[in-house]
Amino acid sequence: MGSDSQLSASALDMSAYWLPYTPNRYFKKTPKLMASAKGAYYFDTAGHQIFDGISGLWCSPIGHGDPRIGQALQKQFEKMDYCTAFQIASPDTFTLAKRIANMAPNGLGKVFFTNSGSEAVDTALKIAIGFHKVSGRGDKFRCIGRERAYHGVGIGGISVGGIVANRKMFASMMMNGVDHLPHTYNLSQMAFSKGQPTWGAHLADELEKLVALHDAGTIAAVILEPMQGSTGVLVPPEGYLQRIREICTKYGILLIFDEVITGFGRLGTTFAADRFGVVPDMITFAKAITNGVIPLGGVIVRDDIYETIMNHGGQEQWIEFFHGYTYSGHPMAIAAGHAVLDIFESDDLVNRSKSLEPILEQAIHSLKGQSKILDIRNIGLAAAIDLEPIASEPGKRGMQMLEKCLEKGALVRISGDTIAVCPPFISTEAQITTLIEIIGSSIQELA
Ligand SMILES: Cc1ncc(COP(=O)(O)O)c(C=O)c1O
């Protein structure tokens, strides 16, 4: 039997599919089935139009079904559907790497391709450890993450990540020697912030305490999301990232920005590094580089880190870095990447994202004062609302919001009782206003 996306929920045998990051038992009782997508909208199996308020999953800033990406994929399929990246390579992979490097901050000129954000994170951690090792600093083995961080689901990513639910079931598998900085969110100091909070730069000095505790000689890298997306758009306080950079430089610790969400325009600049004026040693990316059409991720690396690993003394026919994936630099993903960057240029999408920031900010903060709202915050084309949880039923209001918003024609992201939105860059002002109206009226209807 072939697939039929129009199958209604009652006719569909849902038993075999184990959904990721989804309460499976609840979903199978209350399925939410999408049949198609075009532009900024999904259409569910009953034919209802649903505004994609979360750009796929932070990955589709161009919206869905842009024919320019489809045509590039069709062309690539006819030219070459697959080519291993081990020992042979397609020229387009080099040109995409160069394009990405040219968009990155100065000095970050090398690109390692992966298939996902999780793989990008684990790759960056391995590059950090490998770099120190070949530099004669094999004792630098610790990686520092941050509370409330999301760095994907690889062993490296969950180890440096700071979401307890992602970690507790797998505690026995964690990487050795990891420690965490405190997160920077503080409701009493920064409620209803617009953009960067002014309080909290001093929290970067906690890194000095970790250095004092472990000794800088044991610390390889600090990895941070410049803006913590998955735990609800936690915006770095003014001066915080600058201070982290200074401390890392002082002690020879590599700074990795995980820009899987923020890369390619989400904060109104190509990378968050540009918006905050802080240059890390590596940047991880994924998601928007292909508009979510085909998986592709990667790490942008400081030139001298690459050179050090290349030149650590092996013979030329020896592999310098024992790492890579069957689908690293997959030609179809590379073709999607080129098409997406072409569209970003021709449609000036980073500036489009920037110009929508005040619209989203104004709309979402207009909900301040409604009952059940604890906080609203925003930066770039991303925003979040914390709802007061129902005592002893955490997450219930979040789920009610997901369902009410879907009924009213909008998809939002829930994390517990936090609602996040990150609309596509192609959104109109009216679509963003409607999205927030739907959220506002859904909150009003909550019990
Ligand atoms: C900051 C960050 N890093 C890593 C990841 C993991 O990416 P993926 O789901 O592609 O593995 C995500 C996913 O949302 C993310 O937000």
Automatic annotation (TrEMBL):
<dbReference type="InterPro" id="IPR015422">
    <property type="entry name" value="PyrdxlP-dep_Trfase_small"/>
</dbReference>
<protein>
    <submittedName>
        <fullName>Beta-alanine--pyruvate transaminase</fullName>
    </submittedName>
</protein>
<keyword id="KW-0808">Transferase</keyword>
<dbReference type="GO" id="GO:0030170">
    <property type="term" value="F:pyridoxal phosphate binding"/>
</dbReference>
<dbReference type="InterPro" id="IPR015424">
    <property type="entry name" value="PyrdxlP-dep_Trfase"/>
</dbReference>
<keyword id="KW-0670">Pyruvate</keyword>
<keyword id="KW-0663">Pyridoxal phosphate</keyword>
<dbReference type="GO" id="GO:0008483">
    <property type="term" value="F:transaminase activity"/>
</dbReference>
<dbReference type="InterPro" id="IPR005814">
    <property type="entry name" value="Aminotrans_3"/>
</dbReference>
<comment type="similarity">
    <text>Belongs to the class-III pyridoxal-phosphate-dependent aminotransferase family.</text>
</comment>
<dbReference type="InterPro" id="IPR015421">
    <property type="entry name" value="PyrdxlP-dep_Trfase_major"/>
</dbReference>
<dbReference type="InterPro" id="IPR049704">
    <property type="entry name" value="Aminotrans_3_PPA_site"/>
</dbReference>
<dbReference type="Pfam" id="PF00202">
    <property type="entry name" value="Aminotran_3"/>
</dbReference>
<keyword id="KW-0032">Aminotransferase</keyword>
